[in-house]
Amino acid sequence: MILCCGEALIDMIPRETVEGGTGFVPHAGGAVFNTAVALGRLGARVGLVSGISTDSFGDILMTELVASNVSTSALIRAKRPSTMAFVHLSSGQATYSFYDENTAGRMIQPADLVSVEPKVKALFFGGISLAVEPCADTYAELLEREGAGRAVMVDPNIRPGFIANEKTYRARLARMFAKADIVKVSDEDLEWLVPEGDTLDARAMQLTEQGPALVLVTRGGEGADGYLASGHKLIVAAEKAEVVDTVGAGDTFNAGVLAKLAELGMLTKAKVRELSVEDAAAALAYGAKVAGVTVSRAGANPPWASELA
């Protein structure tokens, strides 16, 4: 099983009203939530660790998880509000305004976590949950406690405007990257994380030096690159698609990579550390294929495995 660890929230997606103005429609979302849902739809065994409200928005999240075959046994339900992310679209590209004070997701503590079952062979961490306390420290502690014998992937999905203390945030990410086997970033994330470096390649290789065996860099419509610690570089083109919006595209890419590695029998700490160029390339290509479906429809709506046949 793959255990995804991080936020589940409500994306408020803009839609034209019957009067001709713009309204917002609630959709289940959140970077880590989206990855878990995509994994479930792709047929992977997956669960989610997150704080979810007992309010009506939390019920929306729970319904989507169950419908997408995601285990909810590790979730923490709380009588706090749900996190909201109002989505702003410009030429299909999404930016976000977050409302996260005192929410069910943000306020989880280490004592709230259930024990990770032995059947969990891989952990995925990411999203805004790694940027705000106390949940960020809770997830970092979970990685510290449970990551040594499991394959670990981290996608920080950086939102600079959401970071209250940059020094603390950078230090936390550095500790998590040191324990990660796979780190995925967008090209914009990479420039923020590694401001020094003449090229994207140079910046990405600096990340491999922090500990991960594989660094993935997504570049929107230009595709994605992979960098093995051995020095090999992989390039995969983006799937051709009529782009509706990019909400959840990177999260779905993550799911595709993890699902393919699991299918190949390579999603263990030891095997990821010995990943061949061919298997890494197959994982990137599948991630791009899955993401190509997501961008072709509104919101974070990952495909089912049957849609990829």
TrEMBL record:
Q: Which UniProt keywords apply?
A: ATP-binding, Kinase, Nucleotide-binding, Transferase
Instruction: Cite the InterPro entries for this sequence.
Output: Carboh/pur_kinase_PfkB_CS (IPR002173), PfkB_Carbo_kinase (IPR050306), PfkB_dom (IPR011611), Ribokinase-like (IPR029056)
Name the protein family: Belongs to the carbohydrate kinase PfkB family.
Record CDD domains: bac_FRK (cd01167)
Q: Which organism is it from?
A: Shimia sagamensis
Quote the Gene3D superfamilies the UniProt record gives.
3.40.1190.20
Superkingdom classification of source: Bacteria
Q: Where is the Carbohydrate kinase PfkB domain?
A: 2-303
- Note one Pfam family from the annotation: PfkB
> What protein am I looking at?
Fructokinase
Tell me the leader sequence span: none
